[in-house]
Amino acid sequence: AEGSAPRRIVSLGEEVIQQIAAGEVIQRPVNAIKELLDNALDAGSSQINIAVKEGGKKMLSVQDNGHGIEREDLPLLCKRHATSKLRSFEDLDNLSTLGFRGEALASISTVAHLTVITKAAAAVAGLKICYKNTVLEPPGPLPCAAQNGTTFIVDDLFYSNEQRRKALGSAAEEYARILDLLGRYAISRPDVGFSCKKQGERRPDLHTVAGTSAQDIIRVVYGASIAQSLLPIELEEPGDKTITASADTSFSFTASGFVSCTHYSGRKGIFIIRINGHIVQCRALEHSLEAAYFSYARNKPFIYLDVKLPGDQVDVNVHPTKHEVVFLHQEEILSCISDAVECLLQGPIRCHCMRSIA
Ligand code: ADP
Ligand code: MG
């Protein structure tokens, strides 16, 4: 019948391909912030400052004091699949960086106006450059005053995509997402100072000082009542017992962090999970923790867990936003962790809540 003839197959143009790929990586301001935070941490920064306008929809900037970018690398900075972090596919097994795909800046420069100011410690002056659709805008790098490190300024996110813009929440909602993410990063990296504020305001809405204890950062970010109710948790598998299991069922990991005691009564569960340095969502782990918790305390927990697995046991490459990870022996590992949490909740409670009651 008419209309049922097959349509011809054609290859998409480079620009369309880039737009589609960028849309997967950057869906809202917080995704851009996450990528820029990861880059700042990969650059060895000890201080990272964020400023936003309209929840990041109008403008967001991330300033770091990391190693900066060499002038010769600037033409490749936003090129897709260009990275300083990965050389071969095998490198993925023992990756020490958060980024590796060379996709974030390509995506950001495709969906927004991107300006970069950078200065490597050895350079005499800073350089300022704008990027559009992954390439340098003429006239190229211009000298400017700058401190050591790099600042990324992202203006008019989704300027050419009205649909995407309309799908975003209010400025307050998008800003809340950014603060939530930043709190998670701050807790997992007490060695780095973070700040976040609305552009033009003096007071940051989140501010942590490098070198503060994780527990103090939790107090700053989530408040005193959570910070007071924390029990430290620490586990290592296999512990000191000898493993007899065959090679293909043996696994190892460490986990450390804090869980709230049975006296804490949060209205919603807060799970901050970090696996091999990546802040991720791991619904399976959240569910098993919630279940473990529910048998001892009829309320929702606060849990921060920093899990380390051998590199060849995890795949961080399954999701475009690297939001979810997949790891081997998931079931065994989850039950080890939830057993340990149950054990902790059963045992003599040593949190601040009890001390103040006793
Ligand atoms: P990836 O992080 O996967 O390598 P990106 O697109 O996020 O890809 O970044 C591309 C490259 O730009 C990085 O490999 C790094 O060399 C450089 N870069 C990005 N952000 C920074 C930064 N804040 N400081 C120094 N170099 C950076
Ligand atoms: Mg990156």
From TrEMBL:
Q: Does the keyword DNA damage apply?
A: yes
Which stretches make up the DNA mismatch repair protein S5 domain?
218-346
Q: Which organism is it from?
A: Coccomyxa subellipsoidea
Subcellular localization is given as: Nucleus
> Could you tell me the superkingdom of the organism this chain comes from?
Eukaryota
| Range within the parent protein | 4 to 361 of 613
To which protein family does this belong?
Belongs to the DNA mismatch repair MutL/HexB family.
What is the protein name stated in its UniProt record? DNA mismatch repair protein S5 domain-containing protein
This protein's UniProt keywords: DNA damage, DNA repair, Nucleus
